[in-house]
Amino acid sequence: MDKWGEQLEQMLQMCVVLVPVQEDDDDKAGFWSQAVYSLSDLFNLYRTVVLRSPEEIPVCDKQNGGVVSVSQPPSKELRHARLTYMLAAFALRAIRSIQVLIEMDAFRRRGSKEALKVCTRIEIVKLVLKVFLRMRMPFSFYVDEVAIEDAEPPKLLEQRNAALLGKRDQQTSSEATPSEATAQTAYVGRRTGRSLKALEAQSSNGDVEQQPTAAPPARVAAGLREDRSPITSQIVLAEVLYHSRPLLHLAMLRRRGRKSWAAWLVAVLLDRISAGLLAQELRPNSGTRAAALETAEVRRRQNQVWWALLRSPMFDKLLRRPSETLDWILKKIPVINMFNIVELALVLQPFYFSTSGS
């Protein structure tokens, strides 16, 4: 998985844009293209779980303020909390990977109204999983796994752990040779896996001296509860608005239809207000892992507001005609017409989960 995982993931992502979108009734919604994308997303999710160590799961021990000694094994309660968190997080992201496929199937069999009912049921299941994860987290608000992955790319897990291990070995072993010390601090490329020697600087007397570098911070869950932002009534309000937005949006779509401007405006306002309220109350200890994860979650929610441009009726009013023109131009260019990026986006846009951002 460590050696070939990224190459396999890139190959699956390339297959997404190479699978043709059929014009007949069997695949008029790009079902197989979406199936390949879901497979790629599930593979990336599995790869993230494999590369993550238990100590990095954002779950703290309730005893001793959440601080666990490295020399002592984790308690039974902490191991159970980590396991349940990992299973719930995996289930949530797995549902996100296949939710468009489920909506497609419901739309093809029973129509648009039944598809929105299925979407509502899926959002309820996702909300239950989010509440469960929130109860396991040491943060004052829900931090999604997508934000954690953005702040801490899974490919860098082993690189940082190896750097920490090399730093500890260098401090404890005074008999290490310069070549061994250089090998311990070597940089490993994210894509190629090649090792590059650490930079060295010449001292004034001509001897080779290695520049002192600080070891990367330990990516463990201990201390997240102490470094987090304090919980306030404004954070609670922001959470209620944020997590209720998908259900309110779906309820209005079922009553008013997918072309409703009122449903579009309500979704935009709830996303914007909740993200703004949360950003105002973000006060973690600077320079800590808690600060990095909370900032990544706020940034993720703020970026979700831009999904509104891809939802109907705004997309139909503003972007549909330019997108169709761009797709027509790309189909006339050799080689480039093999990639169906714009075409796939156009056939997936009418579906709720393709633009929901939830």
From TrEMBL:
Any keyword Iron-sulfur? no
The keyword tRNA processing belongs to this UniProt entry's keyword annotation: no
Region described as Disordered = 166-187, 201-221
The highest taxon in the source lineage is Eukaryota
Short name of any one Pfam family annotated for the protein? Pex16
The similarity comment for this entry is: Belongs to the peroxin-16 family.
Keyword annotations? Peroxisome, Peroxisome biogenesis
Protein name from the UniProt record: Peroxisomal membrane protein PEX16
Q: Where in the cell is it found?
A: Peroxisome membrane
* Polar residues composition bias: residue spans: 171-185, 201-213
Q: Where is the signal peptide?
A: none
What's the gene? pex16
User: Quick one: a GO biological-process term for this protein?
Assistant: peroxisome organization
Q: GO CC terms for this protein?
A: peroxisomal membrane
